[in-house]
C-alpha cells in the first residue's frame, strides 16, 4: 500500500468513529428507526466524500477536526440518498454494500423515515458544530443545501427516473449525473474552500476539480455495473440494464466511456496545478475514482 493510500485508509478508519458518535444510539426510542439509521449509515462503503473533504482541507491547511462537521453531514446526506434510491418506488434494489437494503432489512416506512431523519441530522450537525457567528458557516450550509436539493442530487434523481426506458443524448446524461452524483462531490471540494476562506481562483479550480471527479466517478460506476463483481461492489450488477436506464456505456460504448473517464481525471488533475498547498492526495483520489473495483 502506498503512503497516500495508507493516509487515506487512516482517514476512513477515523471517520467511522466520528460518524458513529453523531448517530443516535439504538437503545434510544424510537429504537427501530435509530437501528435503521445506524444500519444504513455505518454499513461501510468507500467514504469517498469524507475522504475528499479531508484531502481538500489538507491542501488548504485545515485540520481534520475542523472538517468533521462537513464530512459527517455530507456522508449522512449520501446515506439518506442511498436508502431512498433503493426503495421500490425508485430502483427497487435488494442489495447495498453487500447487505440487504434498508427497506428489505426493516420495512419501507422505516426506510423512508430513516432517510428523512439522516438528512435532518446532517443539518443539525452543521448548525451545531460549525463556528457560530461565522459567515463562512452559513455559506457552507447554503452550499450543501443546494447540492442535495432540486437543483442538485434530488433533481438528478428525478431526471434519472424520467429517463428510464428512453433514449437520451450524452448531454442530457451528463446533466443528470452532474446533479445526481456530481453535485454532492463538488460540494465536498468547495465546502472546505469556504471554511478556509480561500480566494475565488482557488474555489474555481477546486470546483472544476470536483465536477470532473464527480462525473468520472459516475462513468466508472456505470462501467462497473456491466463489468464489476457484485461480491466486490456490494450491489447487484447489470441493475441499470435490468431497469432499462441510459448509461455512459449504453450511449458511448465501453471503450469511449473509459476514455471519457480518463479525460475527466486528467482535467481534474490539471486544475490542481493552480491550487497552492499539498494536492497529492487529491490527485490520488482523481485516479482512484476510475481505477477502483467497487
Describe the model:
By secondary structure, the protein is mostly helical. It is 72% helix and 1% strand. It is built from 15 helices and two strands. A two-stranded antiparallel sheet has the order 1-2. Strand 1 (95-96) and strand 2 form a beta hairpin. The mean pLDDT is 94.
Span between termini: 17 Å
Query: Strands of the biggest beta sheet: in what spatial order?
Result: 1-2
User: In percent, how helical is the residue content?
Assistant: over 70%
At the fold tier of CATH, the topology name is Farnesyl Diphosphate Synthase
User: So what's the overall shape?
Assistant: globular
CATH architecture: Orthogonal Bundle
List the domain count as a whole number. 1
Q: Any key phrases for this structure?
A:
Farnesyl Diphosphate Synthase, 2 strands, about 70% helix, 15 helices, two-stranded antiparallel sheet, mainly alpha, about 290 residues
Provide a quick synopsis of the model.
By secondary structure, this protein is an all-alpha fold. The chain has helices at residues 3-22, 31-41, 48-60, 64-85, 102-105, 108-129, 135-148, 153-162, 170-195, 200-227, 230-233, 239-242, 248-252, 254-272, 280-288, and strands spanning 95-96, 99-100. A hairpin with a 2-residue loop joins strand 1 and strand 2.
Which secondary structure elements does this structure contain, and how are they paired or packed?
Elements: H1 3-22, H2 31-41, H3 48-60, H4 64-85, E1 95-96, E2 99-100, H5 102-105, H6 108-129, H7 135-148, H8 153-162, H9 170-195, H10 200-227, H11 230-233, H12 239-242, H13 248-252, H14 254-272, H15 280-288
Antiparallel strand pairs: 1-2
Amino acid at each position: 500500500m502506498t503512503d497516500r493510500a495508507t493516509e487515506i485508509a487512516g482517514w476512513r478508519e477515523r471517520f467511522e468513529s466520528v460518524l458513529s458518535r453523531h448517530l443516535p444510539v439504538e437503545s434510544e426510542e424510537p429504537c427501530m428507526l435509530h437501528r435503521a439509521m445506524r444500519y444504513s449509515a455505518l454499513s461501510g462503503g468507500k467514504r469517498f466524500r469524507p475522504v475528499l473533504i479531508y484531502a481538500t482541507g489538507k491542501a488548504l491547511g485545515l485540520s481534520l477536526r475542523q472538517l468533521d462537521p462537513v464530512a459527517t453531514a455530507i456522508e449522512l446526506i449520501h446515506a439518506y440518498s442511498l436508502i431512498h434510491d433503493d426503495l421500490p418506488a425508485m430502483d427497487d434494489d435488494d442489495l447495498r454494500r453487500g447487505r440487504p437494503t434498508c427497506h428489505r432489512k426493516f420495512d419501507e416506512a422505516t426506510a423512508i423515515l430513516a432517510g428523512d431523519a439522516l438528512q435532518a441530522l446532517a443539518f443539525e450537525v452543521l448548525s451545531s458544530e460549525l463556528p457560530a457567528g461565522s459567515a463562512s458557516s452559513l455559506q457552507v450550509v447554503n452550499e450543501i443545501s443546494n447540492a442535495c436539493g432540486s437543483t442538485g442530487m434530488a433533481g438528478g434523481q428525478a431526471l434519472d427516473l424520467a429517463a428510464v426506458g428512453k433514449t437520451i443524448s450524452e448531454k442530457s446524461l451528463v446533466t443528470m449525473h452532474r446533479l445526481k452524483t456530481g453535485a454532492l462531490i463538488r460540494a465536498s471540494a468547495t465546502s472546505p474552500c469556504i471554511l478556509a476562506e480561500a480566494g475565488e481562483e482557488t474555489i474555481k479550480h477546486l470546483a472544476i476539480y470536483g465536477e470532473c471527479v464527480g462525473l468520472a466517478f459516475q462513468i466508472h460506476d456505470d462501467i462497473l455495473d456491466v463489468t464489476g463483481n457484485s461480491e466486490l461492489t456490494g450491489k447487484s450488477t447489470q441493475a441499470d440494464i435490468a431497469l432499462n436506464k441510459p448509461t455512459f456505456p449504453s450511449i458511448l460504448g465501453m471503450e469511449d466511456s473509459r476514455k471519457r473517464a480518463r479525460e475527466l481525471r486528467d482535467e481534474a488533475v490539471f486544475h490542481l496545478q493552480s491550487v497552492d498547498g499539498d494536492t497529492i492526495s487529491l490527485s490520488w483520489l482523481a485516479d482512484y475514482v476510475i481505477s477502483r473495483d467497487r
